Structure formats: C-alpha cells, structure tokens
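Board notes (copied after class):
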Amino acid sequence: MNEEYFYGRVSEEDRAKLAYLPTISELLEMANREYHDMPAIGDDNAKYTYGELYSRVAKRRFYLNSLGISKGGKVAVMSRNSLDSMELFLAITSAGYTMIMLPAQLDEQKLAGCVMKFSIEALFVSDEFKPLTEGLNTKVLPIGATAEEEAPMGEGIVKETIAAIYFTGGTTGAPKGVVLNHGSLMRGAHNACFRDERVFGHRYIAFLPFSHIYGSVAGFLTAVYTGSYVYTNADMKKAVGMIPYVKPTCLVLVPGLAEIILGLVSVKGKEFIDGLEEMLVGAAPVPPRIMKAYQELGVRVLCGYGMTEGANLSSANYDSDKYPDSMGKIYPGQEYKFVNKELWIKGDNVMVGYYNDPEATAAVMEDGWLKTGDLVEEDENGYITIVGRIKNLIILGNGENVSPEEIEETFYKENFVKDCLVKEDKMNGEPVIAIEILPYGPEVEGLTPEEIQKKAEEVVAKVNATMPTFKRVTKVSVRDTDFARTGAMKIARNVQ
C-alpha cells in the first residue's frame, strides 16, 4: 500500500540498503559496518565517526551492566540534547533496558513523581538538573559516566522487546507513558528515511528535544539509519546560529522553528541556509506562506503526520507544492482505515500500550488498531488531509459538530494570520465559534490596536463568506503575545 510512492523515489541499490531493521542493536551493527569511517555525531568540542560511536556506546553498555539493573529495567536520562544523551539513548536500548528521556521542563516534584510512577532504577543527569535530584529513591549518575571496557549487545533483543517509554504531548489531562518496543521505534525511523532525492549522508542539526518522539526518531535514529551526521548543541539559540557553519542538508523541524529560521534568512540572506536541501516539518500545520517561502528558496518542504502512540511518522507529503493542505500518503508497513472519518492505523509502529493503564489503552486500541483521534479525509489519489480532532469538536446549539482545526486551516491561508486558535464561546447563553488571532508582524506594523482589531474582523468576514453558515466565526479577538505551547510546539488548547 503506497509502496511505489515512497520506494519509487530511491534507486534499487538504495532500496536494498533501506531494508527494515527490527531492533536498535541491528541498526548499530549495520551502521558500524556500512558507515564505519563516516562522521556520526558532533558538537562544538568533539566529533565521532560511526566506528567511534559504536565503541563509545559499547563502553556505556558495560557501565550500565555494572549497575545491577534488572532485565528490561527503566533507565532515565534528564538532559538537554547532547552527545552524552545520544550515546545513552543507543546504549540503554541496545543493552536491553527500557529508556525514558525525561523532558527538561520537569520540576523537582514532577521528577520525583516520574521516578516513582515508572520505577526508574537509574537516572543519568546533566549538571544543570542535578539540583532536582536530591532525595530521589534511585541511582543518580552523571550523564558522562562510562567505562573503559566494552560490552556486547544485550541478549535476546527482538522487535517485541520493550525499548522506551515516551510521554504523550497531549494538551489536556496528565501525560501518559507510551510504551514502544524496538520494532516500533525502528519502523518510525525507517519511515522517515525516504526522501525526494538524496537519502544517505545528510547533515542534520538536532533542534528538537530527544525526549520527544519526533526529535529522537526522525531527528536521530533516521540519521543513523542513513549514515548521516548529527550536530547537537544544548542551547537552542546557539544551535540555530550554527546553521551557516554546520551547513545542514536536512532539518527536522516544527513550523515555529521553521519560521524563526526564515526570519534569519530575511536578515542575513539566503547564504544563511546554503546547502539546505529539504525540511521535514511536522507536529503542527505548516502555514502556506512559510511553505511557499522555502520553496522559493529552493528548499523542499516535506510535511509529516504522526503521533507518539504511532512511533513518530505515519504519513508524509512529498508533493506539498501540489497538495499543500495534505499530510501526504500513509507509509508502507502499516494498514489503515477510516471509522466515521477517524483514522485507524495498525502495524509495527503502533505502541504496546500506555504504561500501567489498561483502561486508557483500551480506549484507543482495538484488535491491534490504534484509534488516532484524528478526523481525516482521503482523496482519490490516496492523499490524506487532517480536518480535526474528535476531542476538540465544537457542538453547536443546533447539533452541528464543528472541527476547530478545519476552520483554522482556512485562516492560515491569510497572510494576516501568523497563528490562530478556534474555540467554543458563548453568546446569549448559546455556544458560538470564536477565534483568537496572532497577526503576522509585517501585516500590522505601524497600526494601532484598534486598526489591528478592525483588520482582523475584515479577515474573518472574508473567510466567513467562503464557509457554510454553521461554520462561521462569530467572535474574534487579537493577541499580542504568542499562545501557550506544548513540548512539541503545538498550541496548548484550553490554556489562556
């Protein structure tokens, strides 16, 4: 299903190299064999080849094994992106333990709660987060801890072996622990390997945190799969500033970061992104003006769709110039169907379940099918378009169900709108559709707040004229500050 759309873009030789590997252990063995002398990871102070990385990870495994962690035990890492965190990611999983990359946003209380909830047996921390670990009931270790001897891959690792637990990026309720096995992570990494032209030997900058599925799988494991180099820097601003020096050929981004880089290009000139060939953008819709701007700069924009429960990417659009509103086609290696417009997927990439939460798991899983919660339309050519989330539906007084995301997509086509949030409001006690708009700076430069509000109302009136009566926006407000964001840089709904 959709095999030719993806595999047809690479040569026969590359197809053979892109065989699906079911475990991270096999990925490391392949990378050491095929890319031994090629650059793998680096920062401002060091740079290692794949052969060196293989050895360094083996020494990390030896150290891990010396700690007496139980088979499959949970080992956590709390650090911003670094060479240490990348090595630990590979070492923990290839030793047969369960890795948990903790978000940097955790405070002392939440960290203690995670240690207890997930029965974390060892916690590696960078110096920045060491003060949060006082009194924790677990082994607390410096992130650079390693050994002189090397240990082999863990025994008995197969694709069903649990590899990692990630936190959901949901905007409502407490985050859940998504349990993924080796096969899931590797299918997610394999999916993101496919490119329009060049597949192997890219240069990346790791912008997205490894605690997020998108950053660690598409931004790191995929790079290892394809013999690519990953530069990292704990400081996001410094990492962005390194673009002209690293000269990345591929970037894995969210739309907000893509816009920041675009702003720097407008100031510093196109040479700021010299060498950049493509961008894989996901986690949120890409405003058309951003997509168009990069296409005019000669950078291919690949829009991806996925979720933590599906181990990163489930679809990708390599024809965003022709289908700008679509998330593309579903990757091979998974089945999909639509149940009352909701997308259901099934395959290696789907999670094992939510950690110690059978009730929550049963709510989204049925006979191996993952209910994504996304309302989707598919055209005659197999391109899917996300039109909303079931949980976010606005139910009007007349019984009509309205998807806020579908309306937001319409507004993103207006240059005036940098970002927006459609939500339910009340008027005379009845539910109505309201919108908050964050205007695009150049469109409102020099205008008074009253003039900006008037222009926003004009944009709303223009868009309303194109929509059915029941989908029209009734109330409009303008923001002068950004929306609250999730860790994946999505707008946090229901947050003021």
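Comment from the instructor: The chain is about 30% helix and 25% strand. Residues 3-386 form a domain with the Rossmann fold fold (CATH 3.40.50.12780).
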